[in-house]
TrEMBL record:
V-ATPase is a heteromultimeric enzyme made up of two complexes: the ATP-hydrolytic V1 complex and the proton translocation V0 complex. V-ATPase is a heteromultimeric enzyme composed of a peripheral catalytic V1 complex (components A to H) attached to an integral membrane V0 proton pore complex (components: a, c, c', c'' and d). It holds the Pfam family V-ATPase_G. Residues 28-59 form a coiled coil. This is V-type proton ATPase subunit G. Keywords: Coiled coil, Hydrogen ion transport, Ion transport, Transport. It comes from Erythranthe guttata (Yellow monkey flower). Catalytic subunit of the peripheral V1 complex of vacuolar ATPase (V-ATPase). V-ATPase is responsible for acidifying a variety of intracellular compartments in eukaryotic cells. Subunit of the V1 complex of vacuolar(H+)-ATPase (V-ATPase), a multisubunit enzyme composed of a peripheral complex (V1) that hydrolyzes ATP and a membrane integral complex (V0) that translocates protons. V-ATPase is responsible for acidifying and maintaining the pH of intracellular compartments and in some cell types, is targeted to the plasma membrane, where it is responsible for acidifying the extracellular environment.
Length: 110
């Protein structure tokens, strides 16, 4: 009788161990499935964020390039004003420079 009771106890322990192993495997599978789902959700969020940032960037590029015509016109006006200023200054000091050069060229030093 003692042998059959110990045999039943061993069988009970083996069954409990198998059930525990089954529970652990089920939990491991569920954990892997949840990790995979979380990874997919994170990749989707990253893709959405990247698309939003790209759209913002493209919008800013379009806005700034729309102003580039105005920038080009403003730069041309500034450049023309500087050129005109240089020409005015050159014509103003040109006679003085010519007379100075003539004086240095024609002066003989011993």
């Amino acid at each position: 009788m003692a042998a059959s009771t110990s045999q039943n106890g061993i069988q009970l322990l083996l069954a409990a161990e198998q059930e525990a192993q089954h529970i652990v495997n089920t939990a491991r599978t569920a954990k892997q499935a949840r990790l995979k789902q979380a990874k997919e959700e994170a990749e989707k969020e990253i893709a959405d964020f990247r698309a939003q940032m790209e759209a913002d960037f493209q919008r800013k590029v379009a806005e700034s390039s729309g102003d580039s015509g105005a920038n080009v016109k403003r730069l041309e006006q500034e450049t023309n004003a500087k050129i005109e200023n240089l020409q005015t200054e050159a014509s103003r000091i040109s006679p003085d420079v010519v007379s100075m050069l003539l004086r240095h060229v024609t002066t003989v030093k011993n």
